[in-house]
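FORM 7B: Structural annotation worksheet

SECTION A. Query
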Amino acid sequence: MTTIACTQPGCTGSILDGYCDICGSPGGPAQPPSGTPSGGAGSSRTTPLAGHVPGADVSAATQPAGIGSSVSTVSRASNRLSSTALGSARALSGSTVTRRLGTSSKRLRGTGLGAGLTTIPPIPAVDASEAIMKNPSVPEEKRNCPSCGSPVGRSRDGQPGRTEGFCAKCRNPFSFTPKLAPGSLVGGQYEVAGCLAHGGLGWVYLARDRNVSDRWVVLKGLLNSGDADAMAAAIAERQFLAQVEHPLIVEIYNFVTHEGAGYIVMEYVGGTSLKSLLKSRMKAAGGRYDALPIDQAIAFIIEILPAFQYLHDLGLVYCDFKPDNIIQVGDAVKLIDLGGVRRLDDLDSAIYGTVGYQAPEVPTVGTSVASDVFTIGRTLLVLAMEFRGYQSTYLTSLPPVSETPLFQTHDSLYRLLAKACAPDPADRFASADELRVQLLGVLREVVSDKPGAGAAIHSTSSLLFEIPAVSDETLDWQDLPGLKVDESDTMTGWLRTVSIEDPAARLEALIAAPQASPEVSLATANAALHAGRVDVVDSAVADMLNTDAWEWRAVWMSGLAALARGDAPAAQSSFNAVYGQVPGELAAKLALARACEISGELDVAESLYWTCAHTDANYIAPSAFGLARICSGRGDLDGAVAALDLVPPTSRAFTQARRQRAGQLAASGRGLPALSEAMNSIDSLTIDAKDRATLSAAVLDAALHEVRAKGAHPEILIAGLPAAEPSLRIGLEAVYRELATYAKDREEKVHLVDMANSVRGWTTQ
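SECTION B. Predicted structure
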């Protein structure tokens, strides 16, 4: 059979059954793709690594630039802003820190599932008997040597390729013929029913467990060796998988041998893999790649992340994560194919990975929690968009923002993926839980951006930040959300005993702390800020970053200090760096928005304010006031009014927003309709009587001048009065006399009475 190469740019795959076996693009007569309804069919491109992926030049892959270095064509995106150096970038620039401490990831244990924020259509379970392959065979295009990865078993001189033989390159044997026939009894217990799929370790079989109620099980090859001692050692080595018990992970029942081969016996999961789901969507779209809706793609990953945290807590790494290995059954998901799972301290056994998903450092330094995080990020991107070149041009990097609409639309998602897939493993999320918490925040943003989501905005408690204060005029550093205390810090108990309110005295007490810790440094910096000692803040920040170059909380304090001293560019750089570290946190976006507003990056500030206002009820007020300031500065009255209208009646800031709305309309110069609307803005408010009278006086005075200049419009009511000269004079006189009762001295009172007399009707007759 002649191999047909995929024609998609950057793809190295071959056309199989009408579709590319790598990118899934159409390349011939489309045929229904075969699903993976079993407990562990791997990709044929999954190959064992002994320090290298056969056929893949990992070292030559394009490396992604640092966060913020790609210039987006969308001016509202924040990724083009400069950032303070954090993590490995800071360590390489002079710090002696060379490893990730992960000080803040221990407390990032998510609560609740991502799918609770959106809806994923359920998929019915696949009956086991219907999943059996009728004619089990491996297409020639997928026949590769299990030892070196070279093509084997290919057609030659018109003769079909052999399914068994020896590799011409390494001389090791290969076989693509099923070893187990229907009816075979494996381990004296498991009766084979047929083949389910062919994976990286050979055929995957479906069988009946004759000892346990004839339940369906899956048999997957563990080792093909004629050495009985090697077989026994391999099985003993994999016994730890039987201890893995988690509702999101396929269950391992047993390990057995049969005719010189070892098999892992696992739970049968009658679902559909996400890879099969993507293929089905593409077929339904007429051969056009149809990615999952972004909220569903994120929700799938959020659902499966607790399984990774469970494995990592056991000292295990999954290694070979990809869309093939997530099965959806009904409205639940499961992680399948544990064939590549290994211990974190395992330095000897073969590493299994898939080109395009595997972290760049794995061939040289091995697997880790960070390498698992990398595969998760890559899988999310493959689910969410047509990621062309992910196994070639962008083997270990992300495509440019300027060429990726998904990144331009969802800036927070780009920041999250840039961190999850960072070239340096130390720059990635320190744990699956840390990733999950931030991904939940990104999902909330994505869901809030959907049509009709505005009415469902609710408040969400952050694990890292307090809620912001409300300020209608400005958003100072004191109004930004405070950092929540890390309860795992060794000095948290002592800090609770420091109840001194005076900032200067509190600062002295904190400087004399009996022991240093991150929370002591943060508390010292905070007290120094309130005491006006920015120099002490800088010192505390430097100490924290010299200890942990990835400590974004120190950079947060540095940003607050920059705002306090009026250095907007420095604040912008700091908050932009924090945003990159915690992309799911609205606090970082609000702070960056304020810094951008001050420094003149108004498009970015507006976009960030909008995101905050539409994602969390706690952030509506400060964001709405920020949007109103920007719109007012542009002379956009309608935009300012619309921004202030975002503040709901249930907010503490509602009165402030309505008063500001009234003031803007009153000063707009748009005539009587605007003045009428200005008074309507505060009509139902319970506000200070003097404030109401002051605004009423300004509106009625402006209305009187408008009527005298352009004529009366009695059909328009202003504070309940027809827009005609007699009624407006009467109303304005009454307001001036009311204001006189609030005068602070005789001179002011006489002035207000004179103003009242000047507009009396008889005075002008």
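SECTION C. Observations
Residues 75 and 739 are 48 Å apart (CA to CA). Residues 28-73, 109-113 have pLDDT under 50 and may be disordered.

SECTION D. Sign-off
Analyst initials: ____
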